[in-house]
Amino acid sequence: MEGRRSLLELGLLCQAALGSELSSSQEDEDLGDFLQEAAALRARLCAVLSHTSGNKRQSCSLIDLTSDSTWDQQKPHLFPKPRLRPKSASSPWIPSITIPQPFKMTLREAHKKSQLMKSNMFLELDKLRDKRQSQDEAECQKQFRAQPVPAHVFLPLYHEIMEQNEVRRQIATQKRKELLLSTQRPFSFLEKEEKKKEAIRQKFLAAATPKESSKLKKVNRKVPRSTNDTLLGDKLKEAELYREIRIQMRAKDLLESSVAPIDTSNCRRDPQSRTATKTKQERLGFLQDRSFSFKPRINPTVPDFEELYWEFQREAVRRQEIKEATQIKPFKLRTSNLRCRQREANEKCILQMQQEKGNLLLGRGEPVLDMDIFHFRQNMRERTREYRKELEEMQLRVSNRPYLFEQVTKHDARRGAERRYRNTLQQVGLSEEFVRKKGKDAADLLEEESDIHR
In the record, which residues are listed under signal peptide (predicted)? Predict the structure, then answer.
């Protein structure tokens, strides 16, 4: 009994200690005392357990110490939770309620599960870290080797670039010079004079010898000998005969190779019985008799169905019934007899008459305006016509005017000809006035002779 009593006291002390632990969360100053008391209680409990009888099957929990009657009679909310101090062994026993605590086995299993989950996560993280580290090490172990610089990066030196530009510029200038020289037209007085003389000479020759040219033409129109050959007709007949034979052979080949549009080889008539054939002969025997009194006339011409169709359409359109439109007849409402309506109608009539008078006055004054507009438009047309004529003349002058280089060459040629003319006159010992005078006298003589001949 003493051992059980001591155990109950220890349980009450533990319960009081737990209650004080829950209630003293706000009292930090008594934490040291509570730890000392808990250590003393733990040492005392171990000593009591060593002195008790060694029944191994006896439960050590504090729940068995209380009876069911005490649990039913007492309520947990009736017992306050004051902070209790350890009592001496001589104090009387006071019954109390034990609060069950969870076994450490369930706590150990929950802790193991959490540790297992944490261990799996840590293993995966370790694997990922090792894999990343191995990849980094493999990447670091790779050797770097720089590729050579491509050839298109290098540029030539400055003087080489300038030389290339100079060569390109010279080629371009040479091409432009050649183009200008090719478009330039030659100029010379001598060639024009020679061409004129040659044309006059050809005209005189053509007028003097017309018979010879006609004879030459007649000689050129002779029929060739090949046309008069006797073998030509035979050759033509032979070619025509070969052509007809070739056409016949081709038609024969096409006829043999042609196929009917409907294959009649697979179409077989159903075999008829003898009775069917006999009745058919009896019923249709009159058709075999050729001595008919009626002989129908067959029209061999095929009608033009397209033309017949359109003629029928035109006839149908001509014969179709045209409904007459409904004719609206005026009617008189009783509301029109009202004075207000009559007044409005009279006002409308007066306004209409005034508008007509105004239109008549405008019509009388219109011809004057029309004449002014007509003269204005005519003047505008004349001005535009003159302006267009001036533009055309200007464009004609611009188009007929020679190029600048032609003018320069012509001027240079004229000056050169005048210089040569003066030099020749000086070499001969003549003056320009003397030559001009003689030329004028010769021109006058030629004019007089032409007048006499006329």
Answer: 1-19
Q: Directed axis angle between helix 31-51 and helix 2-23, to 10°?
A: 160
Task: Using alpha carbons, list the distances in angstroms from residue 440 to 426, 427, 435, 436.
Answer: 20, 22, 9, 6
* Spatial distance between the Cα atoms of 10 and 6, rounded to a whole number of angstroms: 6
Sign of CA dihedral 412, 416, 417, 422: positive
* pLDDT tier at 28, thresholds 50, 70, 90: low
Every domain of the chain and the residues it spans: 2-101, 102-136, 364-401, 416-454
> Does pLDDT of 38 surpass 80?
no
Triad 143, 148, 151: Cα angle to 5°: 165
Smallest CA-to-CA distance from 409 within 183, 187, 176, 179 is with: 187
Q: Residue-wise over 262-291: b if at least 16 C-beta within 10 A, else e?
A: eeeeeeeeeeeeeeeeeeeeeeeeeeeeee
The one-letter amino acid at 292: F
In this prediction, residue 449 has a pLDDT band, given cuts at 50, 70 and 90, of confident
> pLDDT tens-digit profile of 379-396?
999 999 999 999 999 988
- For 108-143, how does the pLDDT look when each residue is reduced to its tens digit (9 = 90+)? 777 777 777 777 778 888 889 999 999 999 888 887
- 265 DSSP 8-state letter: S
Question: What does the alpha-carbon distance between residue 185 and residue 268 come to, in Å, rounded to a whole number?
Answer: 93
From CA 307, how far away is CA 310, in angstroms rounded?
A: 5
Cα-Cα-Cα-Cα torsion 205, 210, 214, 216, nearest 10 degrees, comes to -30
Q: What is the pTM of this model?
A: 0.18
CA 222-227-229 angle, to 5 degrees, is 120
Amino acid letter at 358?
G
429: left (phi over 0), alpha (psi -120 to 50) or beta: left
- 3-state SS record for 46-73: HHHHHHCCCCCCCCCCCCCCCCHHHHHH
Q: Are 436 and 215 a contacting pair, CB within 8 Å?
A: no
For the stretch 166-187, pLDDT in tens is: 999 999 999 999 988 887 766 5
The answer to whether residues 226 and 232 touch, using CB atoms and an 8 Å cutoff, is yes
Select from 34, 36, 40, 49 the least CA-distant residue to 84. 34
Q: Residues 73, 77, 79, CA angle at the centre, nearest 5°?
A: 75
Compute the distance between CA of residue 313 and CA of residue 307 in angstroms, rounded to an integer.
10
